[in-house]
Amino acid sequence: MTSLSLHPHRLTRAIQLSLLCLLPAVATAQEATSARTLDTIQVTGTRIKKAELETQVPVQVLTRETIDRTGYTSVADVVQHLTASGASLSTKLNSSGNFGFPPDGGGVGAGAATVDLRHLGPKRVLVLVDGIRWVNESSGSGVGASVDLNTIPLALVERIEVLEDGASSIYGSDAIAGVVNIITRKNVDGGHVEVQYGDYNLKGGGTTGVDFSFGGSGDRAQWVVGASYFKQKEISSAEYLWAREPVPGTGLANGSSATPGGRSVFAPADGNNTYGGLCPLAKDDNGNPIPGSATCNITLPNGANYAGNGFPGNFIPFTTANRFNFAPYNLLLTPNERKSVFGQVRFDFTPAVSGWFRGLYSERTSANQAAPEPIFLGTDAGVYNEWAETRLVIPANQRYNPFGFDLTTIGPDANLFLIGRRPVEGGPRRYEQDVKTWYAAGGLDGSFEVNGRPWSWDINAMSSQSKATQTNTGSYNIKHINQALGDPAACAAIAGCAPLNIFGGPGTITADMLAWISPVVRDRSKNTLSLASANITGELADLWAGPLSFAAGAEWRRYKGEYYPDPITVAGEYNGVPSGVTIGSYSVKEAYAEFDVPLARGGFWGKSVDLSVAGRYSDYSTFGGTGTGKIGLRWQPADELLLRMSFAQGFRAPSIGELYGTLSRFDATLVDPCNNAASTTPKCVADGVPPGYEQVNPQISVVTSGNRDLQPEKSRSFMAGAVWSPGWAEDSGWASKLDLGVTFYRHTIDGAIQAPDAQAILNRCIDSRDAVACASYTRNERGQIVRFEDILANLGTINTSGWDFSAHWLLPETGWGQLGLDWKATWVTRYELVNESGQAEPKRPGVEVNDSSIPEWTSNLTANWDYRNWNASWSLRYVDRLRESCAGANGFPICTDSAADLHWLGATTLHDAQVSWRTDAWMKGLKITVGVNNVFDKNPPICLSCTLNGYDPGTYDLPGRYSYARLSLDF
After folding, report:
1. What are phi and psi of 857, to 5 degrees?
2. Which of 4-13, 414-423, 616-625, 902-911 has the lowest mean pLDDT?
3. CA distance 629 to 714
4. Is the pLDDT of residue 18 over 80?
5. How far is residue 17's CA from residue 624's CA, in Å, rounded to a whole number?
6. Residue 16 confidence (pLDDT)
7. Mean pLDDT of all residues in the chain?
8. Burial of residue 825, with CB atoms counted within 10 A of its CB: 0-12 exposed, 13-18 middle, 19 or more buried
9. Are strands 178-184 and 125-129 parallel, antiparallel or unpaired?
10. Cα–Cα distance between 959 and 943 in angstroms, integer?
11. In angstroms, rounded to a whole number, what is the distance separating the alpha carbons of residues 784 and 765?
12. Are 909 and 957 in contact (CB under 8 A)?
C-alpha cells in the first residue's frame, strides 16, 4: 500500500489518547519517535483514507486492551457504558410479549442487546462491522430495526470505533445519533484461548465464557478462525428486596386484580338483592342508593377454595388485600446462551489487488419469565378479544357456576363486567427464544497511482440473515376458555373440551382443564439484509495548501422482514397479547461523494486549516429520493491545539415494522387521573367518569400499529470542539502527558416517528380537554378505558444538546511503575420531545419516565497503574440524580413528596477494580486477571415508576456485586 511520510507531534498523541477516549481505562503510553512512515487508514466518520487520525469529528476508539480492562463479556456491555449511551435492550430487561408490543412493529427484542447514543434510540444508531452494515435483530416478536450486538462475539473484535455525530451523508440512513464501527481481528499469528467465569453475590447469575481464535499468514494470505461460547444463568426477582413487589414499598396496592381466588364483578339477576351487603347498590350524586343497581365485586379469601355451598357462601368483597403479587415470578437477570464460529481470509492476488472473505454463524438461546397468565373476561376486560368481551355466556347450568343465574357479555342485558382469574395451576409464563444468525461478506480492494498520487478502491458484497423462533408456555386459548365456560352440551360435543372451574380458587383447575385451554405458542420472525457497494478514494490535485482528497461510491441494499405469530394468535384465540402478521421489504440505491480541501498550511492561520464537504443521495423504493450533506472544519493553530466543527444533515428511513406492522396490543402501566376520589371532579365528569369509579388494573391495554404513509425522519446535527495538549505539561516533573478535550453537540430531528406517550395522552385530555388526546381512548358506561389507540406517525420534534469532556493525565514513570488517570463525562443540557399537539412530552434531562432516563451528568474516571508484569485499575462510574413521578406509590412513605408527586433517585457512584499479571515464560504469553464490578455492593436507586424490579435497568447496573476471573493464553 502506498504510504505518506508524517512527522508526529504532540497533538497526534493527544488525539490518540484524548479524542480516541478509552473507556474506562488509560491508554498505554506511546513513545515519542523521530520521523516515521504511516500507512493510510480509514477512520470511522470519513471514507477518505489518510495517514492521520485527527479528523473533523470526534471518534472514540475502544482498543482491545481497553475492552479487556472492563471485565465485560459482550460488545453491548462495553458500548452501553459509554457516558453518551442511553437506555437500550440488554439481558437485564425481562419483557417478552407479556407487556405487549411497541408501536414500531419491532417487537420487544427479548434476549437481544442494542446501543443507544445521545438518548435518541437504538434505531438512530448505525452499527457497522469493518465499515459494512450488520443485519438487524430478530427475537420472534416482531421485525427488529436495530442490531443485536450479541450476534457479534467479543472474541472477533480488535477495537470498537464510536462516532458520536451525525453521518448520514457518509453512511446513509440511521446514522443520526452516531456510528458504532466494530473492527475485527485480522493480523493474528498463532492461537489465543480465553476462559472467564463471573458471578453475582445474589443467587444465580453465574457467567461462563470461552473464546478461541487461531490465525496465521503466508506470503500472500492472512487468515483467522475462531469460536466463542457464553452462558449466563438467570436471577429471580425474588432475590432482590425491591423487586418483590409490583411497586416498591406499596405492598399489594399495585397488584393485579386477576388472582388465584378469582375476582368477579357482575350484576345479580335480582338488581335489588345485595346478598347481605356483599353486592351493594350504587349511589347517586346525593349519596342515595339507586334501586336495581346492585353490583357484586367479590372474591374468595386468599388461598381458599370454593366449598360448593352456594352463593354467597365463602365469597367476600374484593379489596386491595386480595390483589395478586406478580413481581416475584419475574426475572432480574435473564438467561442467555450464545455460540458462535467465525473466520476470515485475505489473499493478495497481486501487490496492488487483494480479495477477502468473512463469515460468521451464531446461535442464541434466551428466555424471559412472567407470572402465571391472567384470564380477563367481561365487558370491562379491555383485552380486544370478542371471545372474552362480547361473545361469552356462562349459563346457570355450567357445572362450576355458583351463582344460579346466567352471566353474559352479550347485548343490552350484559351483566358480566369482569372476571379476573390467575391460574397458578398452569405455572409461570415462559418465553424462550432460539435465534440463528449467519453473515457472509466478501470483496476486492486495491491501490494504484494517478499522476503519482495514491488512489485506492474496494468492491464489497454481503448477505446476512437473523431468524428466530419464540416458544411460549403457560399461556391460554381464550376461545377454548369461552367454550369450557359455555353451554355444557356444546362443550361435551367438542373433543377434549373440559368444563372450566374459573370460580373455584387455587388448585381447582385440573389437569384435564389445563390440557384443553393450554397451547404451546410459537412465533417466528426473520430479518434479511443484502448489499453491494463500491468505493474509491485518492488525491485529485495539489492545491496551495496540500493535496485535494476525495472519496466517492455507490451502494445498493435490500431489507426484508417477516413476523408470523402462532396460528391461534392470528385466529384471535390467544389469551395473551394479540399481534398480527408483518411482512415487508424495500430496497435503496445510493451514491455519495466526499472531499477534503486543505485551506491553509502555516502562516497567519497557524499549523493547518482543512475543510471537508460530503453529500449523499438515496433513492428508496418506499418513499422516493432524499439527499443529505455535511460540512466540517478542522483548524490546528499550533501543535498543541486542535479546533473543529461540523454541520450535518441526516435522515432515517421508516423501518419495516414501522411501515408494515399490523395492529397489536401493549399493556401499558398507567395511572388513570380519574381513579377513586378524583372521579367526581369536574374534569373527570366531563370525561364520562361515574362517581366511585375504580381503575380495574394498573395495566391498560393500548392498540398500536405501523403506518404505510410514514416519511423519513430528517435531522440536523452540529458539533464544535477542541483538543488541547499543553506542551508545558509534557515530560514535566508531574506529568508525562496531559490531554484535554471538550465537544459541544446538538441534534434536531423533525418528523420523528413515534407514538405519543400513553400516560401523557391521559393526563393531557383530563387537564386540558385536548381534542387529539381525548379522541385516542374510549370509556364504557362504568368509566373503564376499553379502547386506547396509539398509532405511529411523523408527529414529533426532538431537540437535544450537551457537552462531552475528556482528560488524560499520564504521570511520569518511576521505580514503582506508572500511573495514569482517564476521565470522560457527558452533560446533557437539553432534551425536548414535542408531540403532535405542540406540547413537550415528559422525557427530559434529569427525569425518569417510561422505564428510561436522561441523567444530566454521567462520568467515568479510571486510575490505571502499570508495573512490570502487573497492571491494576480502579474505576468510578457516576450517574447524576433523577426525579420521577411517584406513580402508584403516591401517598406511601417511600415517595419523597406525595403532594408534589415527586420522588428522587439519588446520585450513584459505582466502583470497579481489576488486577492482572502476565508472563511470557509459558508459550507466547499467559495472563491472569481478577476483578470486581461494584466493589461496595451499591444497589441502584429505587424507581417507583418503573414497570419491573424496582429499578431502571437501562440506566443502572444490576443490583449486587459481580466478581470474575479470566485466564488468557497465547500459543
Report:
1. -125, 135
2. 4-13
3. 12
4. no
5. 43
6. 34
7. 91
8. middle
9. parallel
10. 13
11. 15
12. no
Round to whole Å and give the CA distance between 745 and 803.
Answer: 6
Distances from the Cα of 242 to the Cα of 246, 320, 951, angstroms: 9, 19, 8
Please tell me the distance from the alpha carbon of residue 202 to that of residue 145, in angstroms, as a whole number.
34
Angle, vertex CA 268, rays to CA 266 and CA 274, nearest 5: 105
Query: And the C-alpha cell for 177?
Result: 445519533
Strands 296-299 and 178-184: unpaired
pLDDT of residue 306: 81
Specify burial of residue 197 (Cβ count, 10 A radius: 0-12, 13-18, 19+): middle
DSSP code of residue 772: H
Three-state secondary structure readout of 38-91? EECECCCCCCCCECCCCCCCCEEEEEHHHHHHHCCCCHHHHHHCCCCECCCCCC
Neighbours of 959 (CB within 10 A): 26
Cα 932 to Cα 913: distance, rounded to the nearest angstrom:
5
**Spatial distance between the Cα atoms of 110 and 118, rounded to a whole number of angstroms:** 23
All three cell numbers of 265, joined, read: 364483578
- Ordered alpha helix ranges (H), 857-928: none
226 bridge partner residues: 213, 342
Q: What would the pLDDT profile of 409-428 be if each residue is shown by its tens digit?
A: 999 999 999 999 999 999 99
Check whether 53 has a pLDDT greater than 60. no
Give the bridge partners for 749, in sequence order. Answer: 715, 798
Cβ contacts of 966 within 8 Å, gap of 6 or more? 68, 71, 194, 195, 196, 927, 928, 929, 930, 931
Residue where the block lists cell 346466567 = 406
18 DSSP 8-state letter: I
User: CA 465, 468, 473: angle at the middle one, nearest 5?
Assistant: 180
d(CA 415, CA 271) in angstroms, rounded, equals 10
- Tell me: pLDDT of 54 over 60: no
839-843, long-range: CB within 8 Å, 24+ apart, which pairs? 839/764, 839/770, 841/756, 841/757, 841/760, 841/796, 842/757, 842/759, 842/760, 843/757
Under 8 Å between Cβ of 884 and 848: yes
Number of H helices, E strands in the chain: 13, 46
Residue whose C-alpha cell is 490546528: 636
The 3-state DSSP class for residue 604 equals helix
Extract the C-alpha cell encoding 571. Answer: 385466529
d(CA 313, CA 301): 11
User: Residue 904 corresponds to which cell in the numbers above?
Assistant: 428522587
Phi, psi torsion values for 197, nearest 5 degrees? -135, 135
Nearest to 145 by CA among 753, 702, 715: 753
CB atoms within 10 A of CB 330: 24
Look up residue 575 and give its three cell numbers: 389469551
- Upstream peptide bond of 24 is cis (omega within 30 degrees of 0): yes
- Gap between the Cα atoms of 635 and 56, Å rounded: 9
pLDDT at 679 over 70: yes
Integer-rounded Cα Rg, in Å, for the chain is: 31
Query: What single DSSP character describes residue 154?
Result: G
**Rounded to a whole number, what is the largest CA-CA distance in the chain?**
102
- Secondary structure element (H or E) that encloses residue 829, with its range: strand 818-834
Name, in order, each residue with C-beta under 8 angstroms of 19's C-beta and a sequence gap of 6 or more.
Answer: 54, 58, 59, 60, 723, 741, 806
Helix, strand, or coil (residue 850): coil
- Listed as own residue / partner, the contacts of 348-355 with beta carbons closer than 8 Å and 24 or more positions apart are 348/220, 348/221, 349/220, 350/446, 352/446, 352/447, 352/448, 353/444, 353/445, 353/446, 354/444, 354/445, 354/446, 355/442, 355/443, 355/444, 355/445
pTM: 0.90
**Does 480 have pLDDT greater than 50?**
yes
Question: Per DSSP, which regions of 565-680 are E strands?
Answer: 582-601, 608-620, 624-638, 641-652, 664-669
Per-residue cell: 639: 501543535
